[in-house]
Amino acid sequence: MLFSGALTALVTPFRNGAVDEEAYRNFIEWQIEQGIHGLVPCGTTGESATLSHEEHERVIEICIDQVKGRVPVLAGAGSNNTDEAIRLTSFAKKAGADGALLITPYYNKPTQEGLYQHFKAIARAVDFPLVPYNVPGRTGCNMLPATVARLANELPTIVGIKEATGNLAQVSDVLEQCPESFAVLSGDDFTALPSMMMGGAGVISVTSNIAPAKMAAMCEAQRKGDYAAARRLHFELCPLHRAMFVETNPIPVKTAAALMGLMPELEFRLPLCPMQEANLARLKGVMKDSGLL
Q: How far apart are CA 74 and CA 143, in angstroms?
């Protein structure tokens, strides 16, 4: 599988209102040094919703240039506008990414047929590995297993899915109905290990922004059949997983990265804002207990 193991949904560092290229390059380099299996720029965790098109493209370019082929880069390229998603996917291919991560159209609330036609149109327009991203909690629509299977079986460039329903029954149905070569990636850190135990390929992780080595080690242990080690690492990571969602992602994880010195500045774009003091104290406590502070 092109995309497997632990892939980090990268935060995007800002300084004085602009993308901090130096901090971003340093962060990417640290991720690779820590043993991460892949990187995902311009996803939800990267605050893609508040990036201009020019910034979006530049963030992808920086990531690809810094990685230099050492790990796969799955570039965020989705939109609720099919033509815009085609344009962003075409850019990701031209820039040298290894694939495109495509959010299901949000706000429009398409039917299952509309979802199928959306991804079919992108696949027909751009010959490139595509990974749809199903996260009903943010988009307002759920791409059902039958639709995923239809895409997987009919369109060979749709190589996987980021499944972020948090519903293991739905993950099981997707795995049952799709080819074995189809990469089912957990979109929730909590469900990474149970998804992999059913045959999932790995996880697109928020927590691995701050604990890449441990997330990678958990995935590697599972793939090697060392289930005791994988379970131990899963439970060690669970307090961090919970802490990453005490407020809306990516507020906690970006704050944690700044506390670790991985971000020289802690800067969000509205409507995201700094953490409430009580939640910040909770985050710091978990990080101390986990050895990150």
A: 20
Whether pLDDT at 2 is above 90: no
Among the listed residues 68, 33, 40, the one whose alpha carbon sits nearest the alpha carbon of residue 203: 40
- Supply the pLDDT for residue 132: 98
Please state, as a whole number, how many other Cβ atoms lie within 10 Å of the Cβ of residue 111.
11
Q: Looking at the annotation, which residues are catalytic?
A: 133, 162
The pLDDT tens digits for 193-236 are: 999 999 999 999 999 999 999 999 999 999 999 999 999 999 99
What's the half-sphere exposure (Cβ side, CA atoms, 13 Å) at 58? Answer: 13
Q: How many helices (H) and strands (E) does the chain have?
A: 12, 10
The residue behind tokens 């441990």 is 214
Q: From edge to edge, which strands make up the β-sheet containing 74-76?
A: 38-40, 5-9, 202-205, 183-186, 160-163, 130-134, 99-103, 74-76
CB neighbourhood size of 159 (10 A)? 21
Cα separation, 63 vs 74, whole angstroms: 10
- CA 255, CA 168: separation in Å to the nearest integer? 29
SS3 102: strand
What is the 3-class SS of 206-227, one letter each residue? CHHHCCHHHHHHHHHHHHHCCH
Residue-wise pLDDT for 120-159, tens only, equals: 999 999 999 999 999 999 999 999 999 999 999 999 999 9
Q: Residue 108 pLDDT > 90, yes or no? A: yes
